[in-house]
Design goal:
It is an enzyme of class 1 (oxidoreductase). This protein has 502 residues and is an alpha+beta fold. The chain has 5 domains: 91 residues, Uridine Diphospho-n-acetylenolpyruvylglucosamine Reductase, domain 2 (2-Layer Sandwich), CATH 3.30.43.10; 123 residues, Uridine Diphospho-n-acetylenolpyruvylglucosamine Reductase, domain 3 (2-Layer Sandwich), CATH 3.30.465; 105 residues, Alpha-Beta Plaits, CATH 3.30.70; 117 residues, 2-Layer Sandwich (GMP Synthetase, Chain A, domain 3); 35 residues. It is built from 16 helices and 21 strands. A hairpin with a 5-residue loop joins β8 and β9. The model has no long low-confidence stretch (mean pLDDT 94). The protein binds flavin-adenine dinucleotide.
Length: 502
C-alpha cells in the first residue's frame, strides 16, 4: 500500500508528529529519492517516497512504525543519505523516516568514557563537544562531516582509523532499536547501556547493525570514547612500482605498532587519475607510480617512537618519504576528496561531469594483486563498451592492526546524465562481475557500504550460503508484513506467499 494526501494515515501521522514534521512537498520527496551512488537520471521518479516524517523521539518512531505495520505501508529509514548501496532509497514508495531531528547529546559520562546520543547526530558535531572534555569518538569515515550515527549503525560502517580504534560495530556499545512492529528494545551487552562485553544470550547488537534499515530503526546510541590524541603522524611515501608499494604496506600493517591507525595503498591507476584530474593532488614526479600513507595516533612520545619504526621499515623497502607538508596535507584532506565536484574523461580525453561509484570489497592481503588486475580488466571492458565510464584507480586500506584484510576500493566515474538503459545494463553486469571477483578470492562483496545494489545483490546468497536462509527467517519473524525497506537484499524471498509488496 502507498499513502496519498488526504489519506487518514497522513492525518494520523500529523497527529503523532505535528503538522510541520510530516513533509509531503515534491522538493522534500525529490531530495530523498537518491544517495550519491550513480543511477540513471531519467529513472529518479521511480524512487520517490510518498511522504517524509521527521520524528523527535523514540516514542514517535515507534508510533509511526506501529501505524505503518497496521496499514502495511513501506518504511525506509534515512539519516545522512550518504550511503553508497542505495539503502536509504525507497524502492516501493511509502514513508521515509528521516531521523535528523534525533540529534541531541543526552549524556557524556566522563568516568565510564561513554556518551549517549540521538542517532541523527554526526561525529563531526559530536567531537566538537567532546573535544572540550579532551575526548574523541573515533568513527572516522571519509564521509565524517555528513554521515550520521544511525546510518553508521544501519550500514555497520568502516572507519579510516579503525586499525587503532575499531569500526562502528566496535564503537557503538548499545542502542535503542524500534522493531518493524513498533516495539522498542535495547540491544547491547548487559542490562545497562555501557557494558563492553557480555556472554549472556545472542549477540543481538550485531544483528541490528548493517541491516540497511530492513529490521527497524535505531534511535538512541551509547558510544565508546577515547582520550583525544595528543599527536598525529601521517607519513606519505612514493614508489616506482606497485609491487614495492604493496610489499611495504604489508610490512607496515604487520609491524604491530600500537599507535598504528591505518595505512592506504594507492595503485598506478589511482596515481594517474589524481595527477590528471584532482586539483587537490600535490604533483609528484612522473616516476612516482604508487603511493602508501600511514597514520599514527596517540601520546606524543609513543607516536614519535612508532613513527620512527614505520619510517625505518619503509626506508628499508626502498620507499621515498615525501616530506611533512605533503604528508600532513593529504591525510588532512581525507574527508574532502569526494566532496568536491567530480569530473572524468571520455575515451578521447574530453572532460565531462561524472559521479562516483566506490566498490568496497574486503580482500585478504595475499589476494590484493590478483583482485586489482581482475577489477581493472572489468573497468576496461566497461569503458570500451560505453563512453560514460572512467577508471579512477584503486585504494586498499588496512582493516585491522594485523594487516590480514583490506577494504579494497576501485573508483569508477560514471557520467550519470548519459546513463541510458543500455549503459545501465552494462553497469549492472559489471557490478556483478566485480562482486564475483571478490568472492572468487575468498573475500566479501562489501567491507563497509553493504551489498544492496543491482548486480552485486544477486551474489549475496552465494556469499552467505546457508546463512542467507537464516537471514530470510529472521526477516519474516521480525517483519511479518515486509514493511521495512522492502525490495532490499532479496529479502522479498522471505515472503513467497506475497507478491513483494507489503
Ligand atoms: C564521500 C563519501 C565518503 C564515504 N566514506 C566512507 C567511509 O570511509 N567508510 C564508510 O563506512 N562509509 C563511507 N561512505 C558511505 C556512507 O557514508 C556510509 O555508508 C554511512 O555509514 C552512511 O551513513 P548515513 O547517515 O548517510 O546513512 P544513510 O545513507 O541515510 O543510510 C544508510 C543505511 O542505513 C539505514 N539507516 C539509516 N538510519 C538508520 C537508523 N537510524 N536505524 C537503522 N537503519 C538506518 C538506511 O535505511 C540505509 O539502508 C562514504 C560516502 C560518501 C558519500
Amino acid at each position: 500500500m502507498t499513502v496519498t494526501l488526504g489519506d487518514p494515515v497522513v492525518e494520523e501521522l500529523r497527529r503523532i508528529l505535528g503538522h510541520d514534521h510530516v513533509l509531503t512537498g515534491k522538493a522534500d520527496r525529490l531530495n530523498r529519492t537518491r544517495v550519491p551512488a550513480p543511477f540513471p537520471v531519467h529513472r529518479w521518479a521511480e524512487r520517490m517516497p510518498d511522504l517524509i516524517v521527521m520524528p523527535g523521539s523514540t516514542g514517535e518512531v515507534a508510533e509511526v512504525l506501529r501505524l505503518a505495520h497496521a496499514h502495511r505501508i513501506p518504511v525506509v529509514p534515512r539519516d545522512g543519505g550518504t550511503g553508497l548501496t542505495d539503502g536509504a532509497v525507497p524502492l516501493r514508495g511509502g514513508i521515509v523516516v528521516d531521523v535528523k531531528r534525533l540529534n541531541q547529546i543526552k549524556e557524556i559520562d566522563l568516568d565510564n568514557r561513554t556518551c549517549t546520543v540521538g542517532t541523527g547526530i554526526n561525529a563531526l558535531k559530536l567531537n566538537e563537544v567532546l573535544s572540550r572534555h579532551g575526548l574523541l569518538y573515533p568513527d572516522d569515515p571519509a564521509s565524517y562531516p555528513c554521515s550520521l550515527v544511525g546510518g553508521r549503525i544501519g550500514t555497520s560502517g568502516w572507519s579510516l582509523i579503525g586499525s587503532r580504534y575499531g569500526h562502528t560495530r566496535d564503537l557503538v556499545l548499545s542502542f535503542d532499536h524500534v522493531l518493524p512492529t513498533g516495539r522498542v528494545i535495547h540491544v547491547g551487552d548487559g542490562i545497562g547501556r555501557k557494558i563492553t562485553k557480555s556472554s549472556s544470550g545472542y549477540q543481538l547488537k550485531h544483528l541490528f547493525m548493517g541491516h540497511q534499515g530492513t529490521l527497524g530503526i535505531a534511535t538512541e546510541a551509547t558510544l565508546k570514547l577515547f582520550p583525544k590524541p595528543e599527536a598525529e603522524f601521517s607519513p606519505f611515501w612514493a614508489f616506482d612500482d606497485y609491487d614495492s608499494a604493496y610489499r611495504t604496506v604489508g610490512q607496515l600493517a604487520r609491524a604491530g605498532v600500537a599507535t598504528f591507525a591505518g595505512a592506504v595503498l594507492f595503485d598506478e591507476w589511482k596515481v594517474a587519475y589524481l595527477r590528471r584530474d584532482d586539483e587537490a593532488y600535490i604533483p609528484q614526479p612522473a616516476s612516482v607510480k604508487a603511493l602508501v600513507c600511514a597514520a599514527l595516533y596517540g601520546y606524543e612520545d609513543e607516536v614519535r617512537a612508532g613513527g620512527s619504526r614505520l619510517m625505518r621499515i619503509a626506508r628499508s623497502m626502498g620507499a621515498r618519504y615525501l616530506g611533512d607538508e605533503i604528508s600532513q596535507g593529504d591525510w588532512a584532506a581525507r574527508h574532502d576528496r569526494y566532496a568536491t565536484p567530480l569530473h572524468g574523461r571520455t575515451r578521447s580525453g574530453q572532460v565531462v561531469p561524472m559521479s562516483w561509484h566506490c566498490e568496497d570489497a574486503s580482500i585478504n592481503y595475499t589476494n590484493l594483486p590478483a583482485v586489482r588486475l581482475a577489477w581493472h580488466e572489468i573497468a576496461d571492458r566497461l569503458r570500451r563498451a560505453s563512453d560514460v565510464f572512467d577508471d579512477w584507480g584503486m585504494f586498499a586500506y588496512t582493516n585491522g592492526a594485523t594487516g590480514a584484510d583490506y577494504l579494497t576500493e576501485i573508483d569508477i566515474g560514471i557520467w550519470e546524465q548519459r546513463l541510458d538503459d543500455a549503459a545501465w545494463a552494462a553497469w549492472v553486469s559489471a557490478k556483478r562481475d566485480l562482486a564475483a571477483v571478490a568472492l572468487a578470492h575468498g573475500g566479501s562483496i562489501s567491507a563497509c557500504h553493504g551489498s544492496c545494489r543491482e548486480g552485486e545483490v544477486d551474489l549475496v546468497p552465494e556469499e552467505l550460503g546457508g546463512g542467507f536462509d537464516v537471514m530470510l527467517a529472521i526477516k519474516r519473524a521480525l517483519d511479518p508484513h515486509n514493511i521495512m525497506n522492502p525490495g532490499k537484499y532479496l529479502l522479498d524471498r522471505a515472503y513467497p506467499d506475497q507478491d513483494g509488496s507489503p
